[in-house]
Amino acid sequence: MSAIDPQFSADFTDRYGEFLNPYPEVNSFREFLKLVPPKDRAGKQFRYPIQAAFSHGQTADITGTSFALRAARSGAEREAILDGCDLYVREDLPYSAVLKGRNGVSLQGDAAAYWEPYDKVMWSTMRGIEYYNELMLMYGPGAGTTILSDIGEVATTAVISGGPNYNSVTHPVVNIKRGKWAAGLWNAAVNGGNTSGGMLVDVINNAGTSVLVTDVMIEFVGDPALCQVQMTATGSSVNPATAVTAGHRFLPAGWYNKGAAGVLGILQNTGTFANIDAGSNNFWRARQFNAGVLKMTRQRILSLTAKLQANGGKTGLKAWGHASTFADLAEEASLLTRWNNSMGDNAVKIQGADSLEYLSPVGTVAVVRHEYMMQGFMFFLEPESCVRVGASDITFKGADGGNIVLDRPDNAGAEVRALSQQAALLKNPFHNALAFNIKNTDDDVSAGDAT
Question: Using one digit for the tens of pLDDT, what is the confidence trace for 251-272?
Fold first, then answer.
């Protein structure tokens, strides 16, 4: 703050700029995965039959006699069963803030408040429920004792600075593995200087079978170019002095064994999901494509989709990737472009792309980017068979149909709640694919693990 001569100090006023929201809007999986119509929404569970195999009781003969037929070999059906996951976000609304907000609001900063406090809390809560709902649809761990996916993994060199433990007073700066780094996800997780805010995560062991530390607070993205996150335990029922170790995996707090399976988990699944065992039913397994720690190209996309044709895919795909993956594909498309000079030598030549489509053996592949995608993965999803099931989309409505604003009887304030009850479902995993081990040209590269 600049100094003011005491004789003038009472003559100056404070002025305020317009309110700024720094967080990006996402290209939403919630929008892409259409919620099933009301008649299919959960009372108890969502069920549907799947033809697992067709009839094979064939007979061939050249004798022209009344030959015996071989025994019937019947087809098979399986029943998929899935329910949504309850997800809540809650926020405080102090009465004093409500009273002050009644004195006028303006986003331009020329009134008593920028926001009507109730509107601000509703907006913030909505952003929170959208964020966690998106993470559940993308990276939900499933309800089993072994998680199907996570939101990040500690790199080979685990800590760049700070103490070796999650509860270190020096607040460890943890290296996240490059392939599992999603800068947009972690940028939105920080506490912004509020020590009672920010995302809380649980630390899961390398095998994904147990929780090591609970309620680790995400404080700050150390250096996004180096895949670093500063964190510290806030008080844990599990020993927070656990050493930060390569291979530890992170989930939003409380999700272990209680979440829905996200798209990444479904694409990686080789066990039981939605009551069907992918280990013995190949139609329930998505195709996986190892990019070999190389960037994605047109040729790799066409090779992947060629493999999907044998699985019956034919209606096209939407491919979700990191922005760096999109940048590599856009650059390749530009290099393959030949200029059309029909407009003359002085025509404006536009480089780059904001959308990409490829004609493939299974139809058109439309490529999009997402702020929360990890650098090393790309999802190839069949739009017509990818849905959300459950009882409700995101809502603020309570049991009586009104907004969930609850007066807190022992506190001078109220509480706002947002909730949803839904889960991602790939109705035919056989028609979908996962590309992994992608290494883009301009990835953020972990200081602890370049791969």
Answer: 999 999 999 999 999 999 999 9
Q: How confident is the model at residue 104 (pLDDT cuts 50, 70, 90)?
A: confident
CA distance 300 to 290: 10
Percent of the chain at pLDDT exceeding 70: 86
pLDDT of 245 over the 90 cut: yes
CA–CA distance, 138 with 132 (Å, rounded to integer)? 10
Buried b (16+ CB within 10 A) or exposed e, 262-271: bbbbbbbbee
Nearest to 41 by CA among 435, 425, 433, 448: 425
Q: How far apart are CA 420 and CA 422, in angstroms?
A: 6
What Å distances lie between residue 183 and 132, 228, 324, 372, 387, CA to CA? 16, 9, 11, 7, 26
Spatial distance between the Cα atoms of 382 and 362, rounded to a whole number of angstroms: 10
The DSSP result for 276-318, as a single string, is EETTT-GGGS-EEEEEEEE---HHHHHHHHHHHHTTT--S-EE
Contact yes or no for 301/349 (Cβ under 8 A):
no
Domain ranges of the chain: 24-42+79-140+260-336+351-451, 144-259
CA dist 291 and 321 (Å) reads: 13
CA dihedral 138→143→147→148, nearest 10 degrees, is -50
Q: What's the rounded Cα separation, in Å, for the pair 442 and 113?
A: 42
> Beta-carbon neighbour count of residue 115 at 10 Å?
17
Per residue in 347-397, pLDDT (tens digit) is 666 677 788 999 999 999 999 999 999 999 999 999 999 999 988 888 887
User: What's domain 24-42+79-140+260-336+351-451's architecture?
Assistant: Alpha-Beta Complex (3.90)
